[in-house]
Specification:
It holds the Pfam family Peptidase_S51. Belongs to the peptidase S51 family. Its EC number is 3.4.13.21. It is an enzyme of class 3 (hydrolase). GO terms for molecular function: dipeptidase activity. There is one protein chain. It contains seven helices and eleven strands. By secondary structure, it is of the alpha/beta class. It has helices at about 20-25, 45-55, 70-75, 90-100, 100-110, 120, 170-180, and strands at about 1-5, 35, 60-65, 80-85, 115, 150-155, 185-190, 190-195, 200-205, 210, 220. The protein has a single domain (about 1-230), classed as Class I glutamine amidotransferase (GATase) domain (Rossmann fold), CATH 3.40.50. A hairpin with a 6-residue loop joins strand 10 and strand 11 (about 220). The longest helix has 12 residues, at about 45-55. The relative contact order is 0.16. The protein is globular. It has a seven-stranded mixed β-sheet. A four-stranded mixed β-sheet has the order 6-7-10-11.
Length: about 240
């Protein structure tokens, strides 16, 4: 499989996708017809226009899957697919409703390049359980696309030692996940991404990632770190620590 999994599409001080634009251009086929999946936000047309404005100057033809009466047919006619960020529950519910969930899985496993950002990166994991989002709708299942066999947490935030907020930190929430599930979680800080090409996977971007595994201290993974071993993960869900 050929995957580019971005933590975020918008970066402070940058335009949409600007912080990763060179990587995105190199990832997508030249003059590609890109199927964009806008279902994570409510205004599909405005969202698609935003992506189109960012990528068409680079020679990428952006087509929202909602613009075709048959979204699966639009996917089949495309050279790559991009699933954008927003609310992961709303996104996953729409993927099931339109039939795109199974269609994307099949197409990407057959070699279609897949780009995700934020919620779209959440979709690449086996389950929605490590999303940061509020469940504003109820999808038929928490099962996502399973393009990689481990979990990814986009927008990973480090604990603020000066904060007076008493709610759970992101690290505490991911630790709770590992108490109930034996599956690695790759925390992607904003400005970082994961590149998967066949059996190789590497952390890239401007910031290090953080890897959480059961029974071990979190690991810092600088940009350039090879994490191909994660592709051989055998996830164990609903396997609580006893």
């Amino acid at each position: 499989m050929n995957l580019l999994l971005l933590s975020n599409s918008t970066q402070y001080g940058c335009g949409y996708l600007e912080h990763a634009l060179d990587t995105v251009r190199a990832f997508l086929p030249p003059e590609a017809r890109l199927a964009f999946v806008p279902y994570a936000l409510a205004d599909y047309a405005a969202y698609t226009t935003r992506v189109r404005d960012a990528l068409e100057p680079a020679g990428i033809s952006v087509r929202g899957v909602h613009e075709n009466a048959d979204p699966v047919a639009e996917l089949a006619a495309s050279d790559a697919v991009f699933i954008g960020g927003g609310n992961s529950f709303r996104l996953l519910s729409a993927l099931y409703r339109t039939g795109l969930r199974d269609a994307v899985i099949e197409a990407v496993r057959d070699g279609l390049p897949y780009m995700g950002a934020s919620a779209g990166t959440n979709m690449a994991s086996p389950t929605l359980r490590t999303t940061n989002d509020m469940p504003i709708v109820q999808p038929p299942s928490f099962e996502t696309l399973g393009l990689v066999p481990f979990q990814i947490n986009p927008h990973y935030l480090d604990p603020d030692p000066d904060s007076t907020h008493k709610g759970e930190t992101r690290e505490e929430r991911l630790t709770e996940f590992l108490e109930e599930n034996d599956v690695p979680v790759l925390g992607l800080r904003e400005g970082s991404w994961l590149r998967v090409n066949g059996r190789q996977a590497r952390v890239q971007g401007a910031r290090p990632a953080r890897l959480f595994t059961r029974g071990a201290q979190p690991q810092e993974l600088p940009a350039g770190t090879d994490v191909s071993h994660l592709l051989t993960t055998a996830p164990r869900f609903d396997a609580p620590v006893r």
